[in-house]
Amino acid sequence: MTDAMRDHDDEYDLEPELAGYQPSGEAPLRSRRLVTAMRVIVVLGLVGLVLPGILITAGTANRTALASCAVYSAYYAPESVSYSTRFELASSAGMGWNCYAVLFGGGEVLVASLGLIPGPPRVPVAPDPPLQTSALRAHR
What we know:
There is one protein chain. The protein is α+β, with helices and mostly antiparallel strands. 44% of the residues lie in helices and 16% in strands. It has a three-stranded antiparallel beta sheet, covered by helices on one side. Strand 2 and strand 3 (108-115) form a beta hairpin. The chain has three helices and three strands. The longest helix has 45 residues, at 32-76.
């Protein structure tokens, strides 16, 4: 055995599965076209996994914001004609979903800031209606 072969075999002594392996020169294992095709497939696979989750989350947030805005506008602005929700990156109320009451004539008033992830509406609980005095006298 020559010294070059002995050095080469010593290099792979720690990894017996590579014993006798001779590198085949400078040719790559996979062609450039195959590597590009594999990268495209991986990117499409990742987009296919992530995009539906983003779309479902955005749709759920939109429906929740609409439902909460309906309650808020009915409670805080009963004279409004309609309501509107928008996701705003920069507004006076901050980043997130905002609820606007649409007034007669087209003006809008901010009713509530719903935040980044809108949840159920939190309106104050109305006090119990006052008891009728005639009903109290009947029970005495």
